[in-house]
Design goal:
It is a single chain. Strands 5-6-7-8-9-10-11 form a 7-stranded parallel beta sheet. The chain is built from 13 helices and 15 strands. By secondary structure, the chain is of the alpha/beta class. β2 and β3 form a beta hairpin. It has 2 domains: about 130 residues, Enolase-like, N-terminal domain (Enolase-like, domain 1, 2-Layer Sandwich); about 220 residues, Enolase-like C-terminal domain (TIM Barrel), CATH 3.20.20. α9 packs parallel to α11. The structure holds 2-succinylbenzoate and magnesium ion.
């Protein structure tokens, strides 16, 4: 196979409601879509790099720069047997996983479409039904949060993740445990605490959370070792895990019991698979995280979530929770039991709505 052309595209989309985390509040999103043409077949990927370097150091502009000036020249005109080789071919570029992941996943989609198989099958996925959870924004009031949780549970979602920060952590858990004592509940701090907060974080044991996601520094695996030693609540790492080496280090040191997998954070399907296999061998559970993706990234996440060790409900939820109109058809839907069925069609199994995407495009560059 040969990568013939890459199209970089920035689209502007508006979330149905603002999404607030410990590091940001967002409603209008700049989204980076990547089309890879392989042997005449176009595949689609989404780089989850955003507006600002507040989740990771990457932004849409750094990712654009890396793809245009480094990744594309490394890949163009050099034949390959399978998308599985792309990650290692980009090895000389250190980091910039969101850039790499957007392109690598688009090439996987193109290969699956060329072979007329669903991407999830090409990746070796085995799960026929994916359990889904939701990630809930920090809200203005406890009542608003409680109502949102009631709504998501009524829709069938199997687990509730709340975004927390110092000052919005204990009370939300108290309120939700009073009203919903039996649900699968977890919280995600996006690195809002420090090791000085370990005694505070330990008090959350009384809420018997499924896990606490990324409480400490984005680059502080060692801090999480200290925390996990001192609390019975399982720690899940998100921001800390960028590579197989990070995952192996976290596993060996006991920094976590669970790893959230994100295609963008680790750089695509090949590194995800390697980290998945290391986790599986060590008894560390996985689930698929989300980054407020449009349908393209959502569909890529669905394919990833079919791997065997993705046993916990993920953050991949229905399109209509985020978008008035998603940019793929059909939209991603979730059953009344809170599950997604991986699509039967070739590639990511959803078709990009090109006219809509063109209308939303504010910047486009074709690399040939
Ligand atoms: O930490 O998982 C996170 C959104 C943006 C940045 C980081 C995170 C999130 C989410 C949203 O939790 C999950 C989703 O896409 O539904
Ligand atoms: Mg997270």
């Amino acid at each position: 196979m040969r990568l013939e052309q890459v199209t970089l595209r920035e689209v502007r989309v508006r979330l149905l409601a603002p999404f607030e985390t410990s590091f940001d509040r967002v409603q209008d999103r700049r989204v980076f879509l990547i089309e890879a043409r392989v042997d005449g077949q176009t595949g689609w990927g989404e780089s989850v790099a955003g507006d600002h370097p507040f989740y990771s150091y990457e932004t849409i502009d750094t990712a654009w720069h890396i793809l245009r000036n480094f990744a594309w020249p490394m890949l163009k005109e050099r034949p390959f047997e399978s998308a599985a080789e792309i990650w290692d071919r980009l090895d000389r570029i250190r980091g910039h996983n969101m850039a790499k992941g957007g392109l690598e996943s688009a090439i996987w989609d193109a290969e699956a479409r060329l072979k007329r198989v669903p991407l999830w099958k090409l990746l070796g996925g085995t799960r026929a039904e994916l359990p889904c959870g939701v990630s809930l924004s920090i809200k203005a009031t406890l009542q608003e949060l409680e109502d949102a949780v009631a709504r998501e549970l009524a829709a069938g979602y199997q687990r509730i993740k709340i975004k927390v920060k110092p000052g919005w952590d204990v009370k939300p858990c108290e309120r939700l445990r009073e009203r919903f004592p039996r649900i699968k509940l977890m919280m995600d701090a996006n690195s809002a605490y420090t090791t000085a907060d370990i005694p505070h974080l330990k008090t959350f044991e009384r809420f018997y959370l499924m896990m606490i996601e990324q409480p400490l520094g984005w680059d502080d695996i060692y801090g999480h070792v200290a925390l996990q030693k001192q609390t019975t609540t399982p720690i899940c790492l998100d921001e800390c895990i960028h590579s197989l080496a990070d995952a192996e280090g976290a596993i060996a040191t006991g920094a976590c019991k669970i790893i959230n997998m994100k295609l963008g954070r680790v750089g695509g399907h090949t590194p995800s698979r390697r980290i998945h296999d290391a986790c599986q061998a060590a008894g560390i559970l996985n689930w698929c995280g989300g980054m407020l993706e449009t349908g393209i990234g959502r569909a890529q996440n669905i394919a990833l979530s079919t791997l065997e060790n993705f046993v916990l409900p993920g953050d991949v939820s229905a399109s209509r929770r985020y978008w008035q109109e998603d940019i793929i058809e059909p939209e991603v839907t979730v059953s009344a039991q809170g599950t997604i069925t991986p699509p039967a069609g070739p590639g990511i199994g959803f078709e990009p709505k090109l006219p809509l995407i063109e209308k939303l495009t504010v910047r486009k560059e074709v690399l040939t």
